[in-house]
From TrEMBL:
It comes from Aneurinibacillus thermoaerophilus. The keyword Membrane applies. The chain crosses the membrane at residues 78-100, 107-126, 138-156, 168-196, 202-219, 239-258, 278-296, 308-328, 340-358, 365-384. Keywords: Membrane, Transmembrane, Transmembrane helix. This is Glycosyltransferase RgtA/B/C/D-like domain-containing protein. It comes from the Bacteria.
Length: 531
């Protein structure tokens, strides 16, 4: 196929890719369902009289300063309806995919359609691209990083080079204010581009930006959680620690990733059929098939211009670089969101390998069918992910509303009394894939419970609620047990008041209003067991 024909098809590909991105998170009509940190970052923080002084200057300026400012003055302004924020984040993610293609085109390294499908739709990225507490850092930061790289490659071609170079420096520095992994990835990618184009005199610019953000972190290293999270790995453990990070990366990208399909795909299809969402399923099918057909049609010209060896090598480098902060930080571990910056590299790696099969027409047909299948599967799995977020968020709201009502009834929700929620587990609602804080309930921490209580009750003075799980030991003083608000969380998410009855040995039997026992708190052993 000629270059002219391919250029005619490209707008259709990007239009349909945008439709796929909309279908990915549009099943609930782009409603956003807050979980965990969302409640406090976007709900409770908006209740303060002067968020800049009371929150930013006293609490959140130490790390990711621009992300913290955006929480208060951009995303938080959408509360309680965060649909607008989700639409913007999804649009930025889509634009990031387009920028990635434009950058590589101008470098003489055109990419295949598989890159957009993997980078944009891979369900493994749902925590990083849907959960606003993460996407407001990762997606926004990655978009600014790619925009800065696009300005950099434009500076190689345009007459007004100084303006583009200045734009590159400014936008890159802005991207560094959103997430530490973006710092590593942005600096490394700009180095690679400068080396590829032999622009040796520009190499000092990303070094300067890294220096600026490094100085910022050093100056404020004692504030917030920087002092704890910023501990470096002792050099004698560096090799072993790095190997551990790679092992975590493998566990997530390979082992855990398969659960999104073995569990999530069937759940997604079942949800669509059970809810009679036939039109939505039809749209997913049509978009996927058309994208696959376009991939088949465009693969011929793409295969002649591309360099699979270079793409695979770059993919490996760009997949590993975002992990570098974890190589040197001691008290850190990979969450699902932390593999998202590596998606660009993983997409390049897979696309380079797939290029080897598109040399002949049969291979291109297989390529097209594969792209169609991936688009369909990824989108359906993402539907299941969205429903998980919805169910968890609604459960958290329901629990908080009951606690507030009971607290008001007992006159113990004014911050003067401790509040304990016995039977609260980190995962009260079943989800497809459970890993660390992926789609976790607010009952997983007192921090999250404080956020949901204050956001739902629209009162920043509501007390924190301490979840008491059967899986963790917890120290509760007798005074707090006898004077505090003692509640129990039933499996059906009903919150009931409990009456603690102290026994001779000091243990407490926790009794429901109907006289039945809910559980026992063993004072000497400091743990709780349900009856």
């Amino acid at each position: 196929m000629g270059e002219k024909k391919k250029l005619q098809l490209l707008p259709w590909f990007w239009f349909l890719f945008g439709a796929a991105m909309a279908l990915k998170y549009g099943y609930e009509k782009f409603r956003y369902y807050p979980v965990l940190d969302d409640w406090i970052q976007y709900g409770a923080f908006q209740l303060y009289d002067d968020p800049f002084r009371q929150i930013f200057l006293n609490y959140s300026y130490h790390t990711r300063p621009l992300a913290s400012l955006f929480d208060l003055f951009v995303w938080g302004k959408f509360w309680p309806n965060l649909a607008g924020a989700l639409v913007i984040i999804t649009a930025l993610h889509t634009a990031s995919c387009y920028l990635l293609y434009r950058i590589f085109d101008r470098l003489g390294l055109p990419l295949g359609t598989a890159v957009a499908i993997i980078f944009g739709l891979l369900p493994l990225g749902s925590e990083a691209t849907y959960w606003l507490s993460a996407s407001s850092r990762l997606v926004v930061g990655l978009f600014l990083m790619l925009l800065s790289l696009y300005l950099l490659v434009l500076s190689f071609e345009q007459k007004k080079k100084i303006g583009y170079v200045a734009g590159f420096v400014i936008v890159q520095l802005l991207s560094f204010g959103f997430y530490e992994q973006i710092i590593a990835l942005g600096a490394a990618c700009s180095f690679l581009i400068m080396l590829w184009k032999q622009r040796w005199r520009l190499l000092w610019l990303p070094i300067l930006n890294v220096g600026f953000i490094g100085i910022y972190y050093v100056v404020f290293k004692e504030g917030g959680n920087t002092a704890e999270r910023g501990q470096l790995v002792p050099w004698e453990r560096l090799l072993v620690h790095t190997g551990g990070v790679f092992h975590e990366f493998y566990d997530i990208v390979v082992l855990l990733h398969t659960k999104f399909y073995s569990i999530g795909f069937g759940r997604g299809l079942s949800l669509l059929l059970k809810n009679h969402s036939y039109l939505y399923l039809f749209l997913i099918t049509i978009v996927a098939l058309t994208i696959g057909w376009l991939a088949f049609r465009m693969a011929d010209k793409e295969s002649r211009l591309r360099r699979p060896g270079v793409e695979i090598l770059l993919g490996i480098i760009i997949a590993v670089v975002p992990l570098s902060p974890f190589f040197i930080l001691d008290k850190s571990g990979l969450a699902l969101r932390n593999v998202f910056p590596s998606f660009i590299g993983l997409a390049l790696l897979v696309d380079g390998l797939l290029l080897l099969i598109v040399r002949k027409r049969v291979g291109r047909a297989v390529y097209g069918m594969l792209i169609a299948s991936l688009t369909f599967i990824f989108t359906v799995v993402n539907v299941a992910e969205i429903v998980d977020y919805k169910n968890v968020s609604q459960a958290d709201r329901y629990i908080a509303e009951q606690i507030i009502a009971l607290g008001k009834k007992e006159h113990k929700i004014n911050g003067k009394y401790p509040v304990y929620l016995f039977g609260a587990e980190p995962q009260m609602v079943q989800v497809g894939v459970s890993f660390l804080n992926h789609v976790r309930n607010a009952t997983s921490s007192d921090w999250a419970m404080a956020g949901v209580m204050r956001a739902v009750g629209q009162n920043r003075y509501y007390p924190s609620v301490t979840p008491v799980s059967v899986k963790k030991d917890i120290i509760i003083a007798s005074r707090d047990m006898e004077r505090g608000l003692i509640l129990g969380l039933e499996p059906d998410l009903t919150v009931v008041p409990l009456r603690p009855q102290k026994k001779r040995n000091g243990d407490y039997h926790l009794v429901r209003p109907d006289g039945t026992r809910f559980g026992i708190y063993f004072t000497s052993k400091q743990y709780f067991r349900k009856w």
